[in-house]
Amino acid sequence: MKAWILHDIGKISYEEREMPKPGKGEVLLKVHSAGICGSDIPRIYQTGAHNMPLIPGHEFSGEVVEAGQDADRTWLGKRVGVFPLIPCRDCFPCRQLKYEMCRHYDYLGSRSDGGFAEYVAVPEWNLIELPEGVSYDSAAMLEPMSVGIHAIRGVAPERGEKITVCGLGTIGTLLVMSLINIFEIDANDITAIGNKESQKNNVEGLGVPAGNFLDIRQLDTDKKETAISKFIAERTNGIGTNVFFECTGSNESYSWGVDILAPSGRLCLMGNPHSDMELKRDVYWKILRNQLKLMGTWNSSFTGSEADDWHMALNAMAKNGKELENFISHRYPLEKLDEGFEIMRDKKEEYIKIMGQI
Ligand SMILES: [Zn+2]
Ligand SMILES: [Zn+2]
To answer: Please, are residues 269 and 297 in contact by the beta-carbon 8 Å criterion?
Structure first.
Protein backbone atom coordinates (compact mmCIF):
# COMPACT_ATOMS: atom_id res chain seq x y z
CA MET A 1 0.00 0.00 0.00
CA LYS A 2 0.96 3.67 -0.25
CA ALA A 3 1.49 5.83 2.84
CA TRP A 4 3.09 9.02 4.10
CA ILE A 5 5.96 8.03 6.35
CA LEU A 6 7.60 10.37 8.82
CA HIS A 7 11.21 9.19 9.20
CA ASP A 8 12.56 12.10 11.21
CA ILE A 9 11.80 15.76 11.88
CA GLY A 10 10.96 17.36 8.54
CA LYS A 11 11.56 14.09 6.68
CA ILE A 12 8.25 12.82 5.38
CA SER A 13 7.84 10.92 2.15
CA TYR A 14 5.18 9.10 0.18
CA GLU A 15 6.21 5.48 -0.11
CA GLU A 16 5.22 1.90 -0.72
CA ARG A 17 4.70 0.09 2.59
CA GLU A 18 3.71 -3.42 3.54
CA MET A 19 -0.01 -3.75 4.28
CA PRO A 20 -0.71 -3.65 8.01
CA LYS A 21 -2.02 -6.93 9.49
CA PRO A 22 -4.90 -6.52 11.93
CA GLY A 23 -3.85 -8.10 15.23
CA LYS A 24 -5.98 -9.61 17.98
CA GLY A 25 -9.16 -7.55 18.45
CA GLU A 26 -8.23 -5.30 15.54
CA VAL A 27 -9.71 -4.65 12.13
CA LEU A 28 -8.17 -3.44 8.91
CA LEU A 29 -9.61 -0.19 7.67
CA LYS A 30 -9.51 1.05 4.12
CA VAL A 31 -9.06 4.75 4.73
CA HIS A 32 -11.43 7.01 2.78
CA SER A 33 -10.89 10.46 4.34
CA ALA A 34 -8.09 11.78 6.55
CA GLY A 35 -7.94 15.37 7.75
CA ILE A 36 -4.75 17.22 8.59
CA CYS A 37 -4.83 18.44 12.20
CA GLY A 38 -3.01 21.59 13.33
CA SER A 39 -1.00 19.34 15.66
CA ASP A 40 0.30 17.28 12.71
CA ILE A 41 2.34 20.23 11.44
CA PRO A 42 4.70 20.65 14.43
CA ARG A 43 4.80 16.83 14.67
CA ILE A 44 6.04 16.58 11.09
CA TYR A 45 8.26 19.66 10.89
CA GLN A 46 9.41 20.63 14.41
CA THR A 47 9.22 18.01 17.12
CA GLY A 48 8.86 14.67 15.38
CA ALA A 49 6.62 11.90 16.73
CA HIS A 50 7.07 9.63 19.78
CA ASN A 51 7.93 6.71 17.55
CA MET A 52 9.46 7.00 14.09
CA PRO A 53 9.21 5.93 11.35
CA LEU A 54 5.52 6.63 11.71
CA ILE A 55 2.46 7.14 9.51
CA PRO A 56 0.83 10.30 10.91
CA GLY A 57 -2.87 11.21 10.74
CA HIS A 58 -5.36 10.79 13.57
CA GLU A 59 -8.51 12.27 12.04
CA PHE A 60 -9.74 9.64 9.62
CA SER A 61 -12.64 7.46 8.58
CA GLY A 62 -13.03 4.45 6.35
CA GLU A 63 -14.48 1.05 5.64
CA VAL A 64 -13.71 -2.14 7.55
CA VAL A 65 -12.27 -4.66 5.08
CA GLU A 66 -10.74 -7.36 7.31
CA ALA A 67 -11.20 -8.62 10.86
CA GLY A 68 -8.26 -9.87 12.94
CA GLN A 69 -8.36 -12.70 15.46
CA ASP A 70 -11.29 -12.40 17.92
CA ALA A 71 -12.53 -9.21 16.25
CA ASP A 72 -16.27 -9.09 15.61
CA ARG A 73 -16.80 -10.01 11.95
CA THR A 74 -20.03 -8.02 11.78
CA TRP A 75 -17.83 -4.91 11.40
CA LEU A 76 -16.88 -6.12 7.91
CA GLY A 77 -18.12 -3.74 5.21
CA LYS A 78 -19.18 -1.11 7.72
CA ARG A 79 -18.39 2.59 7.36
CA VAL A 80 -16.73 3.84 10.51
CA GLY A 81 -15.12 6.77 12.29
CA VAL A 82 -12.18 6.17 14.62
CA PHE A 83 -11.37 7.43 18.12
CA PRO A 84 -7.59 7.71 17.79
CA LEU A 85 -6.63 7.22 21.44
CA ILE A 86 -6.03 3.65 22.57
CA PRO A 87 -6.37 3.64 26.37
CA CYS A 88 -4.81 1.11 28.74
CA ARG A 89 -8.26 0.64 30.34
CA ASP A 90 -6.56 -0.10 33.65
CA CYS A 91 -5.22 3.16 35.14
CA PHE A 92 -7.18 5.44 37.51
CA PRO A 93 -8.83 7.69 34.87
CA CYS A 94 -9.55 4.67 32.65
CA ARG A 95 -11.35 2.90 35.49
CA GLN A 96 -13.59 6.00 35.68
CA LEU A 97 -14.13 5.69 31.90
CA LYS A 98 -12.25 8.98 31.42
CA TYR A 99 -10.05 7.48 28.74
CA GLU A 100 -8.97 10.89 27.48
CA MET A 101 -6.82 11.18 30.61
CA CYS A 102 -5.31 7.69 30.36
CA ARG A 103 -1.82 7.48 31.87
CA HIS A 104 -0.49 4.81 29.49
CA TYR A 105 -2.19 5.38 26.18
CA ASP A 106 -1.26 4.61 22.63
CA TYR A 107 -2.36 6.97 19.87
CA LEU A 108 -2.99 6.32 16.20
CA GLY A 109 -1.06 8.83 14.15
CA SER A 110 1.36 9.99 16.85
CA ARG A 111 2.61 6.84 18.63
CA SER A 112 1.29 4.13 16.28
CA ASP A 113 0.63 4.28 12.54
CA GLY A 114 -2.32 6.46 11.62
CA GLY A 115 -4.48 7.42 8.69
CA PHE A 116 -2.29 9.09 6.05
CA ALA A 117 -2.24 5.76 4.26
CA GLU A 118 -4.44 3.54 2.15
CA TYR A 119 -4.95 1.11 5.04
CA VAL A 120 -4.58 1.17 8.81
CA ALA A 121 -5.07 -1.44 11.55
CA VAL A 122 -7.38 -0.22 14.33
CA PRO A 123 -8.67 -1.89 17.52
CA GLU A 124 -12.39 -2.58 17.11
CA TRP A 125 -12.93 -0.88 20.48
CA ASN A 126 -12.04 2.45 18.78
CA LEU A 127 -14.65 2.24 16.01
CA ILE A 128 -17.89 4.15 15.77
CA GLU A 129 -20.34 3.13 13.06
CA LEU A 130 -21.47 5.87 10.70
CA PRO A 131 -25.17 6.24 10.02
CA GLU A 132 -26.31 6.79 6.46
CA GLY A 133 -26.04 10.46 5.59
CA VAL A 134 -22.75 10.98 7.42
CA SER A 135 -20.04 11.18 4.77
CA TYR A 136 -16.49 9.95 5.21
CA ASP A 137 -15.30 13.56 5.03
CA SER A 138 -17.61 14.60 7.88
CA ALA A 139 -16.62 11.56 9.90
CA ALA A 140 -12.96 12.55 9.56
CA MET A 141 -13.96 15.66 11.50
CA LEU A 142 -15.51 13.73 14.40
CA GLU A 143 -12.31 14.19 16.40
CA PRO A 144 -11.95 18.00 16.23
CA MET A 145 -15.70 18.39 16.65
CA SER A 146 -15.73 16.13 19.73
CA VAL A 147 -12.85 18.12 21.23
CA GLY A 148 -15.01 21.25 21.01
CA ILE A 149 -18.04 19.46 22.45
CA HIS A 150 -15.91 18.15 25.33
CA ALA A 151 -14.77 21.70 26.17
CA ILE A 152 -18.32 23.06 25.99
CA ARG A 153 -19.66 20.33 28.28
CA GLY A 154 -16.82 21.04 30.71
CA VAL A 155 -17.85 24.68 31.21
CA ALA A 156 -21.58 24.03 30.69
CA PRO A 157 -22.65 27.43 29.30
CA GLU A 158 -26.27 28.28 29.93
CA ARG A 159 -28.62 29.92 27.49
CA GLY A 160 -28.51 33.69 27.95
CA GLU A 161 -24.88 33.72 29.02
CA LYS A 162 -22.39 35.73 26.96
CA ILE A 163 -19.74 33.58 25.34
CA THR A 164 -16.44 34.56 23.72
CA VAL A 165 -14.41 32.26 21.51
CA CYS A 166 -10.83 33.39 20.91
CA GLY A 167 -9.06 31.59 18.07
CA LEU A 168 -11.04 30.42 15.05
CA GLY A 169 -9.02 27.59 13.59
CA THR A 170 -10.82 24.31 12.96
CA ILE A 171 -11.52 23.60 16.63
CA GLY A 172 -12.68 27.13 17.49
CA THR A 173 -14.93 27.28 14.42
CA LEU A 174 -16.45 23.84 15.06
CA LEU A 175 -16.92 24.85 18.69
CA VAL A 176 -18.96 27.90 17.63
CA MET A 177 -21.01 25.63 15.37
CA SER A 178 -21.67 23.18 18.22
CA LEU A 179 -22.59 25.98 20.66
CA ILE A 180 -25.32 27.06 18.26
CA ASN A 181 -26.48 23.76 16.74
CA ILE A 182 -26.14 21.37 19.66
CA PHE A 183 -26.22 23.49 22.83
CA GLU A 184 -28.80 25.94 21.46
CA ILE A 185 -26.85 29.03 22.43
CA ASP A 186 -28.25 32.15 20.75
CA ALA A 187 -25.71 33.21 18.11
CA ASN A 188 -26.26 36.83 19.18
CA ASP A 189 -24.70 35.98 22.55
CA ILE A 190 -21.47 34.79 20.95
CA THR A 191 -18.51 37.05 20.27
CA ALA A 192 -15.56 35.74 18.33
CA ILE A 193 -11.97 36.93 18.18
CA GLY A 194 -9.93 35.97 15.14
CA ASN A 195 -7.36 37.22 12.67
CA LYS A 196 -8.67 36.34 9.21
CA GLU A 197 -11.43 37.59 6.95
CA SER A 198 -12.42 33.98 6.19
CA GLN A 199 -12.99 33.35 9.91
CA LYS A 200 -15.42 36.26 10.00
CA ASN A 201 -17.31 34.76 7.05
CA ASN A 202 -17.37 31.34 8.71
CA VAL A 203 -18.87 32.49 11.99
CA GLU A 204 -21.24 34.81 10.15
CA GLY A 205 -22.38 31.81 8.14
CA LEU A 206 -23.20 30.12 11.45
CA GLY A 207 -25.34 33.08 12.49
CA VAL A 208 -22.96 35.13 14.62
CA PRO A 209 -23.62 38.83 13.83
CA ALA A 210 -20.81 40.43 11.79
CA GLY A 211 -20.45 43.08 14.49
CA ASN A 212 -19.61 40.39 17.06
CA PHE A 213 -16.42 39.41 15.24
CA LEU A 214 -13.23 41.20 16.22
CA ASP A 215 -10.25 40.99 13.88
CA ILE A 216 -7.20 41.53 16.10
CA ARG A 217 -5.03 42.33 13.09
CA GLN A 218 -6.85 45.64 12.86
CA LEU A 219 -5.83 46.71 16.37
CA ASP A 220 -2.73 48.72 17.33
CA THR A 221 -0.32 46.40 19.13
CA ASP A 222 -0.01 48.63 22.20
CA LYS A 223 -3.76 49.23 22.48
CA LYS A 224 -4.99 45.67 21.89
CA GLU A 225 -5.92 45.00 25.49
CA THR A 226 -8.10 48.09 25.92
CA ALA A 227 -9.66 47.61 22.48
CA ILE A 228 -10.68 44.04 23.34
CA SER A 229 -12.14 44.89 26.74
CA LYS A 230 -14.05 47.80 25.18
CA PHE A 231 -15.35 45.50 22.42
CA ILE A 232 -16.54 42.91 24.94
CA ALA A 233 -17.95 45.51 27.36
CA GLU A 234 -20.07 47.01 24.56
CA ARG A 235 -21.56 43.62 23.79
CA THR A 236 -22.21 42.52 27.37
CA ASN A 237 -23.75 45.67 28.91
CA GLY A 238 -20.45 46.41 30.59
CA ILE A 239 -20.53 43.18 32.60
CA GLY A 240 -17.98 41.07 30.73
CA THR A 241 -18.27 37.70 29.14
CA ASN A 242 -19.49 34.73 31.19
CA VAL A 243 -17.51 32.10 29.36
CA PHE A 244 -14.24 32.51 27.43
CA PHE A 245 -12.85 29.71 25.28
CA GLU A 246 -9.09 30.15 24.76
CA CYS A 247 -8.34 28.25 21.54
CA THR A 248 -5.01 29.79 20.51
CA GLY A 249 -2.49 28.84 23.20
CA SER A 250 -1.05 32.35 23.16
CA ASN A 251 -0.19 34.12 26.40
CA GLU A 252 -1.96 37.30 25.35
CA SER A 253 -5.23 35.52 24.59
CA TYR A 254 -5.09 33.79 28.00
CA SER A 255 -4.57 37.17 29.65
CA TRP A 256 -7.44 38.78 27.70
CA GLY A 257 -9.71 35.95 28.84
CA VAL A 258 -9.01 36.57 32.53
CA ASP A 259 -9.29 40.31 31.94
CA ILE A 260 -12.70 40.37 30.26
CA LEU A 261 -14.57 37.69 32.21
CA ALA A 262 -17.66 38.72 34.13
CA PRO A 263 -17.82 38.06 37.90
CA SER A 264 -18.05 34.27 38.41
CA GLY A 265 -16.95 33.79 34.79
CA ARG A 266 -15.33 30.61 33.46
CA LEU A 267 -12.20 30.44 31.37
CA CYS A 268 -11.78 27.27 29.36
CA LEU A 269 -8.16 26.65 28.34
CA MET A 270 -7.93 24.65 25.13
CA GLY A 271 -5.03 25.88 23.01
CA ASN A 272 -1.69 24.07 23.24
CA PRO A 273 0.58 26.70 24.87
CA HIS A 274 3.19 28.33 22.64
CA SER A 275 5.22 29.62 25.62
CA ASP A 276 5.14 29.96 29.40
CA MET A 277 1.74 31.35 30.29
CA GLU A 278 2.01 34.33 32.63
CA LEU A 279 -0.33 36.99 33.94
CA LYS A 280 0.40 40.54 35.03
CA ARG A 281 -0.47 41.15 38.66
CA ASP A 282 -3.44 43.42 37.96
CA VAL A 283 -4.90 40.76 35.64
CA TYR A 284 -4.18 37.97 38.14
CA TRP A 285 -6.08 39.96 40.81
CA LYS A 286 -9.22 39.51 38.71
CA ILE A 287 -9.15 35.75 39.25
CA LEU A 288 -9.52 36.41 42.98
CA ARG A 289 -11.83 39.41 43.02
CA ASN A 290 -14.13 38.06 40.31
CA GLN A 291 -14.02 34.50 41.70
CA LEU A 292 -13.17 33.17 38.27
CA LYS A 293 -12.96 29.51 37.37
CA LEU A 294 -10.02 28.50 35.16
CA MET A 295 -10.28 25.05 33.74
CA GLY A 296 -8.44 22.89 31.29
CA THR A 297 -9.96 20.55 28.75
CA TRP A 298 -8.28 17.70 26.95
CA ASN A 299 -9.31 15.53 24.03
CA SER A 300 -12.85 14.11 24.19
CA SER A 301 -14.88 11.36 25.81
CA PHE A 302 -15.38 8.07 24.02
CA THR A 303 -16.95 5.36 26.15
CA GLY A 304 -19.21 3.58 23.66
CA SER A 305 -22.25 5.08 25.39
CA GLU A 306 -24.72 7.31 23.54
CA ALA A 307 -23.88 10.02 26.08
CA ASP A 308 -20.21 10.40 25.11
CA ASP A 309 -18.86 13.33 23.10
CA TRP A 310 -18.36 11.24 19.97
CA HIS A 311 -21.97 10.10 19.82
CA MET A 312 -23.11 13.66 20.44
CA ALA A 313 -20.95 14.82 17.51
CA LEU A 314 -22.13 11.96 15.30
CA ASN A 315 -25.80 12.57 16.05
CA ALA A 316 -25.37 16.25 15.21
CA MET A 317 -23.65 15.30 11.95
CA ALA A 318 -26.44 12.96 11.01
CA LYS A 319 -28.82 15.92 11.28
CA ASN A 320 -26.60 18.65 9.88
CA GLY A 321 -23.71 17.03 8.03
CA LYS A 322 -23.61 19.29 5.01
CA GLU A 323 -22.89 22.38 7.10
CA LEU A 324 -19.77 20.69 8.42
CA GLU A 325 -18.44 19.92 4.95
CA ASN A 326 -18.48 23.65 4.18
CA PHE A 327 -15.48 23.91 6.48
CA ILE A 328 -13.35 21.76 4.20
CA SER A 329 -11.36 24.40 2.37
CA HIS A 330 -9.01 22.05 0.47
CA ARG A 331 -9.22 18.45 -0.72
CA TYR A 332 -6.24 16.43 -1.94
CA PRO A 333 -5.72 12.88 -3.08
CA LEU A 334 -3.39 10.96 -0.72
CA GLU A 335 -0.32 11.37 -2.94
CA LYS A 336 -0.66 15.16 -2.89
CA LEU A 337 -1.30 15.55 0.83
CA ASP A 338 2.10 17.22 1.23
CA GLU A 339 0.63 20.27 -0.50
CA GLY A 340 -1.77 20.49 2.42
CA PHE A 341 1.03 20.07 5.00
CA GLU A 342 2.90 22.93 3.33
CA ILE A 343 -0.09 25.28 3.20
CA MET A 344 -0.56 24.78 6.93
CA ARG A 345 3.18 25.08 7.68
CA ASP A 346 3.78 28.19 5.60
CA LYS A 347 0.31 29.69 6.07
CA LYS A 348 0.59 30.78 2.46
CA GLU A 349 -3.14 30.71 1.92
CA GLU A 350 -6.21 30.69 4.15
CA TYR A 351 -7.58 27.31 5.10
CA ILE A 352 -9.95 25.73 7.58
CA LYS A 353 -9.86 21.96 7.25
CA ILE A 354 -7.60 20.32 4.70
CA MET A 355 -8.83 16.83 3.81
CA GLY A 356 -7.08 13.94 2.18
CA GLN A 357 -9.34 11.71 0.10
CA ILE A 358 -8.07 8.26 -0.50
ZN1 LIG B 1 -6.37 16.59 15.99
ZN1 LIG C 1 -5.43 4.14 31.18
So the answer is: yes
